[in-house]
Every structure is written in structure tokens, then in C-alpha cells.
Amino acid sequence: MRLAVGLRGFARMLAVLLLPVAVAASASGQSGNRQSYRPPQHTTEWPDLADGELGPHIERGRPARWEPDQQRKLAAALAALRPQRKGVIDAYVVSVALDSDPVFGREAREAGKVLTRRYDAAGRSIVLAGTDGRAPSALAMGTPRSLALALTRVAEVMDKSEDVLVLYLTSHGAQVGIAYHDGDEGFGLITPRRFAAFLDELGIRKRVLILSACYSGIFVPALSNDDTALLTAASSERTSFGCRAENDWTFFGDALVNHALRKPQPLDDALTEARVTISDWEMANSLPSSMPQATFGEGVEAWLVPLEARMPKVATAPVGAPATDAFRP
To answer: Which of 3, 25, 213, 317 is deepest in the core (most CB within 10 A)?
Structure first.
């Protein structure tokens, strides 16, 4: 909850600082504006950044070259996305690590590979992630902004009447949203209502959304609809486990992606397997249940069954150290 308290404090500080500016801007607009265009007006107080309406994104202390370097990496990745194939249910895979702890960078990279193979998405996938712990990342960092741009590009190249978004987000979470945190320089939050509204505005309705973060069940009410399969690592009131920076996987990522989704089995069966695996790991390590959540809309079967009919018939082997290694004596 320290994340939420910090955002509220930041909001209060900005409200005090910006009040004189808002008053001055309003007065200036009333006295000197003779044009028909009316600039945006400051008519309300600065909002509570943790109230669920915004997804704030703050960068501070970045080197001058950081932003253009990130933009070049992202532009190259987005330009490489192939257009959809007429008459084929194409999946577009977006796998994103929103925290610079290497566990998330490793998980997002491998999840991107597994989901791309499973859903026949070669050339239609993008990974946004920080370091994997070995060197600075060659990828664009996962941020609220880069995620928004990636999803916007997917919406442009897909046929929204037949194609599917497969989104994997991995990071730390709080009871207000999923956190973006890059060292001491990048901060942000993706909140349920704002994220749901963004997807709806893009018109992306057919979607498999997999959220690997503590408290990620808070997204269930906002993101569930008839054409969404939504899987979360924990309930709205529980933490998930395995997010130590040194790990290769979180519990949820290891059980679901690294094991269950590598097998030629339907998504709901993979989730059932992952839930059992996670429960066994939690009980063996005397951990409280994370209670992973899932909702499958009534319309999901119509497009998910033919999409998964094309999945490879041979499983691949898990990679990396088991997420439970961190709990060994």
C-alpha cells in the first residue's frame, strides 16, 4: 500500500503547486482570448492519482538520449508487426514486463516465445521489457506509454472482427493497479477502469488477458466481457509469489506459461493445471493461497477453439530455474 500512499501525496503536492497556475490561466483566457477555439480549461482540483480513473506515468532524471533511444526501439518493433490474414483468426501477442527487476524481464521474454508458438503468432508478437539481468535491454522498456502505443498499433493492423489480442503483463501489483517501476527513474500505474476503457476505445474485443501480479484480481470486474478470457495471478485481496528479482519465474508464470501452456491442451485445462501446481507450491512452503482468478465470456469459445486447434501438437520443455527454488533452505 506504500505505492497508493505515495501517489496520493504526490497528487496533493501537485494540487497545491498548480492551483495558482490554474487561476492565472483561467483569468488570462477570459481577458485575452478573441478566437473561437477554446483551450482546455482547469475546472477541477488535481485528482487523486490512485482513485482508479488515471494511469499515471512519471519519468525523472533520465539521460537526454533515453527517450529517443526508447522511441527507436519501440518504432522498430511496431513496424515489424505483420498485417492480419483475411479469413484466418490471427493472434497478436503482446508480452510486457512493467518492472525492471530481472525476473519480470526474463518472464516476459519467455512468455512471448511460448505464446507466440502456441497461437501461431510469428511476426505478430512484440515483447516490451527491461533487463534480463545479464545486460542492458535491447528491447523497449515496458511502460504505460509503450504498452498503449503497442496496443494501438495492434488495433490498426488486426481485423477486429476476427483477430485476437493475447496480452501478458507481469510486474509488481498493488490494490489500486499494476505498477510500472524502472529503477529510480520510471514510475507509473495501470488501473483497471482506465485500462478497460482504453481497450474498449481501441475496439479490441476478442482478447486473452493474462495478468501476473499481486492483487491482479482487481481487474476482473472492469475487464470481463462476453469476448474476453481473463486470467490473473491472484485475487483482489491476495498477493502472488515468486517475484524475487533473482528468479527466472514468478509462481504464476512458471506454472501457467512455463509448464501448462507449453502443452497442447485447451486454455481452461491449462489454467486448471496451473492452479493445482500453484496450490501445491504454496502449501509446501507454508504460504497463503494467492487464489488465481479466471473469467471466460460466453462468446470466447467461438474464436478460441478454432485458434487453439492450430496449436503445436508437441509440448516444449520448461526453461529456467523453478520459481520455488527461492524457498529452499
So the answer is: 213
pLDDT of 187 > 80? The answer is yes
- φ, ψ of residue 298 in degrees (nearest 5): -65, -25
> What region does 45 belong to: left with phi over 0, alpha with psi -120 to 50, or beta?
beta
Q: What is the pLDDT of residue 18?
A: 38
Q: Return the higher-pLDDT residue of 242 and 16.
A: 242
**121-133 mean pLDDT:** 96
Give all strands (DSSP E) within 223-303, no chain letters: 228-232, 293-296
Beta carbons within 8 Å of 5's beta carbon, 6+ residues apart: none
- Distance separating alpha carbons of residues 232 and 211, to the nearest angstrom: 5
Report which of 215, 206, 185, 165 is spatially closest to residue 52, judged by C-alpha positions: 215
How many whole angstroms separate alpha carbon 133 and alpha carbon 102?
Answer: 5
- Please count the other Cβ atoms lying within 10 Å of the Cβ belonging to residue 7: 23
Contact call for residues 121 and 91 (beta carbons, < 8 A): yes
pTM of this prediction? Answer: 0.86
> Cell numbers at residue 148, please?
498503449
What letters, b where the CB count within 10 A reaches 16 and e where it falls short, cover 17-44? eeeeebeeeeeeeeeeeeeeeeeeebee
Q: Amino acid identity of 185?
A: E
Q: Residue 267 half-sphere exposure, CB side, CA atoms within 13 Å?
A: 24
Mean pLDDT of 51-77: 85
Pairing of strands 228-232, 207-212: parallel
